[in-house]
Structure formats: structure tokens, C-alpha cells
Amino acid sequence: MMHESAAQATVASKEKDVFHDTLLRYAGYANEFTEAGINSGVGLAKKLNPLAWITVFTYGFSDALNRSLNKHRDVLQTTGEEYEAKLRAVSTLFEMSIFHAIATWYGPVYTVIKPVGKLTEKLFKNTLKRDPRFWPSVAGLATIPFVPKVFDPITEKLLAHTYTPITERLIDWHLASRQDKTREAKLNRLG
């Protein structure tokens, strides 16, 4: 069976995804604002930083849980099999957690923040009046409106060609072997 990734399923569906199609998508980057504030010397930013990280993780988990529950509902409606629906929902929960780790956290850090930080250090090593961490934060803030448009599709494709087919095949294999064992147990009881 070929199944689409959780991220692609929402793109394909016509309903609006509140976690990806609205400004709520930017909640995944709340930490960038407080980190920029800390690097700029804004005292309040240090106090707000834990709240920003809680926002980031809550957003990512809420999106993953929402997709997982939707997957459970969809599989249950399609197959009527509760066990299969639970397996596919758990797989979706992990897939979306990986999605957020890549698209929201690691992707921007390693392609924007760290390179700009290294470049800033090299170019302005002795002439910076501000903490050198300030400029990577500024670069991060400037790219936030574009980050989901770049990283989300790349991450969706990456998962659609790696995680999703592997886990779907494993689930299909597990369900088939479970069916075989059930069928075998019924035959043993009869005969």
C-alpha cells in the first residue's frame, strides 16, 4: 500500500490547516525573538525565553498530535480497524515530530543562524561593537517570514521519500503477519 506522508496529506486536503496555513505557523519560531532580544541586551528577553521555548515545543507537539488524531480518524473511517488506526496515528505523531525538528529547529539553525554567525565573526572579529551573536539573531529574524516557505516543502519531500515509505511498509508487513497469525489460530481451533 502506498500512503502519503502526514505533511503531504494536509497539503492535498482542501481544508485549511490551522497549524500550517495561518500565522500560527510562526509560533514555531518564537524562540528567535527572545534569543535576538537576549543577544541585543534586552533584559526582559531573558525572562521571556523559557516561555518562548515552551511556545515552540507546544506548537510542534500540538501540530503533531492534531495530525496524529486526524490520521487515526481517517484510517478508522477507511478501514474500520482500530489497531491499524492506532499504529498509523503513532507513526504520524513521530513523523510530525521529525518534521518540526528539521523544518522549525535544525534547518534554520544550520543554514541561517550558524553560517551568519561564523561569517560575522570572521568579517568583523575586532570591529563589532555589539555581541557577535546579535547578527545571527538579526539574520534569523529577517528570514522568519520565508523559512516555512523554504523548509516545509523540502522537509515534506524528505520525509515522503524516507520515513513515510519505510514506516508504512513496516506497518503493512506487521498487519499482514498479524492477520496470518489470527487466521492460523482460527484454523488451529477448528481443526
In short:
The chain is mostly helical and 191 residues long.
Give the tags.
single chain, 191 residues, mainly alpha, 79% helix, elongated
What does this protein structure show overall?
This protein is mainly α. Helices cover 79% and strands 0% of the residues. Helix 4 runs antiparallel to helix 7. The model has no long low-confidence stretch (mean pLDDT 81).
Chain-wise SSE layout:
Elements: H1 6-12, H2 30-40, H3 43-79, H4 82-123, H5 134-143, H6 147-161, H7 163-190
Work out the oligomeric state of the chains in this entry.
Answer: single chain
What share of the residues does DSSP label as strand, in percent? under 5%
Number of discrete helical segments: 7
* Apparent shape: elongated
